């Protein structure tokens, strides 16, 4: 039996902050009280620190299998727990693409041996595997997604194929998570700028190519079809204020049939940052205007957008170089996502309570996760201890990403992740990893 007693932490949970003790026995939180005594417990003095539920990241690309030269489940889950992320959900664009139930279960088997964090994997959906995708067990799998996949082996994402969406949305009983951009508009914009610049399109034009119009047209399309069929739809990485305003904030989180997220990089960077960072901040959907950045944060606060994710998508630094068409989109973020949000807190833009709501509580509600996402007696002890006044700088020496770079290189953070617990086990302790800890497969309610 393992036992930890966290003393006098400032607990951020369910819209409140209170100072209390937390007793962890084995995997779960046994007691929360103003003062607790426990024999044979490992005592952690948390006075002056904040205890929060671990971040649950519903959109990562850990690259295994098939792309392990740039990332793998072991390395990226290590970075995740170092950044206060205790659960992740991984996308199907590995090699081979996760388009069969057998391939899906193979990823779970890999994670059971390698992952420091709790895990789930999306089942991929494409042109020829609808029946296979519909077999997905909603209690053991987070959902179905096309993120990072081509619909017909050549081009296109699912949002551009309304006839197929009708079939999927009318039949699925599990959550569907979609990337939403209009391929035709992107093609037209690309041709326009290629006519002027050839292959040397400046990365600053990425936001004009993958434009607000491309985002909003596709999002309107998928929302209309989802509403028609009452589908449980989750829209990934909303990047524009115009899109965010399409979503409802009048329905309680557990009653929403359509939910949506913002990603950390869209809340931190703007198109002005392309000049400094270049391809390092080239993501799909693109980072856009200052107005979009501020608008996304406001719509999160207003509950039009429900959660915050990372879209962690590492590439080797060499893969980020080259011309516009050669440079790959995506960057590593799991180790620094929560510290970035804490920077926004220091700037007075978001409260600690709201950060916890958007990174833990609401993710657990949207996916109907069992016994996670809150600091409650009887729940799994997925907990993070944070020092809000501990400055540190991002350097190559403290990166856990396999690709060994970050868009936050040399940034000086004001807050530091001190300890991370996964299922009651202290997996990360002030820079040190307990290599013996392994996460668990996430479980969900059958009805989403």
Could you say which overall geometry the principal axes of the C-alpha atoms support?
A: globular
CATH architecture of the largest domain: Alpha-Beta Barrel
Give the terminus-to-terminus CA distance. Answer: 34 Å
Total of DSSP H or I helical runs spanning 4+ residues: 13
Overall domain count: 2
**Main sheet attributes: strand count, strand direction, barrel closure:** 9 strands, mixed
**Which oligomerization state do the chains in this entry correspond to?**
single chain
Mean pLDDT: 97
Radius of gyration, in angstroms, nearest whole number: 21 Å
Uncertain ranges: none
What is the helical fraction, as a range of percent? 25-40%
Please summarize what this structure is:
The chain is an alpha/beta fold.
